[in-house]
Amino acid sequence: MRSSYVIIAMLAVACYRAYNLFYPSEPCENDPPIELIISLGGVVREFSWDACHVFSLEFSDARHKFRKAARKAGIKGASIPVVMDDGTDDSPLTTDIAILKGDLPGVLVHSSATHGVEGYAGSAIQLALLQKGVLPPPEERPTIVLVHAVNPSGMKNYRRFNENNVDLNRNAISNFEDFLKTRDPNIANYDDFRNLAAPERKPTAWWDGTL
Asked: When comparing pLDDT for 75 and 46, which is higher?
């Protein structure tokens, strides 16, 4: 059964890529502008962006926009290689970090693409934050750390999972064995339905299709 799901998923991806190959589209061109209204200390500020300016269709484009916006804002960032060679010109696949220093105590961390395919929305938010005048001046805010593409492989390949087929948002427990010992094994009531989904007895004639 699992192999059937894999085959269906592969066919869906192949059809999607073939469609885009012969019928390229730029969905953001017809989208209305993105508008943002910020009210701080009684001061209201309004911003507007072209959707194509902050959203991207591919990982390489999103990464390029993030790096360019950070440089334009005068921010020295860091680029951490995650996948050294994925067989494409985008190698190495990286997680990029931009630090906007602030004077107030505390640190605000904003990350994108823990689930790779969701990173395009997170990347757009980070690009918007890097635009001049959006954030309060350093003396009015804490330090902000923007982590672009926690899972660059998943973002590039439009998948939740990383290059090792791991869902990072479901595998962030440092000591998993201790966690399992203290966790209620039926915390989500899945065990109540276990026999319905995976009965221990063999299927009857009605279920195995011999009637």
From this structure: 75
Whole-angstrom Cα distance, residue 59 to residue 109? 21
Number of H helices, E strands in the chain: 8, 6
Task: Tell me what pLDDT residue 193 has.
Answer: 76
Contact criterion met (CB below 8 Å) for 93 and 113: no
For residues 79-91, average pLDDT? 86
| pLDDT higher than threshold 90 for residue 102 | yes
pTM across the whole model: 0.69
With contact defined as beta carbons under 8 Å apart, do 117 and 159 qualify?
yes
With a cut of 80, say whether residue 209 has pLDDT above it: no
Distance of CA 211 to the CA centre of its chain: 49
Compute the distance between CA of residue 98 and CA of residue 94 in angstroms, rounded to an integer: 13
Residues 139-150 have pLDDT tens digits of 989 999 999 999
User: 3-class SS at 46?
Assistant: strand
Does residue 92 have a cis bond before it (omega within 30 degrees)? Answer: yes
199 DSSP assignment: -
Which sign, positive or negative, has the C-alpha torsion 88, 91, 93, 98? Answer: negative
The set of residues, in sequence order, having a beta carbon less than 8 Å from that of 42 and lying 6+ positions away, is: none
Order of strands across the sheet that contains 104-111: 78-83, 93-100, 142-148, 104-111
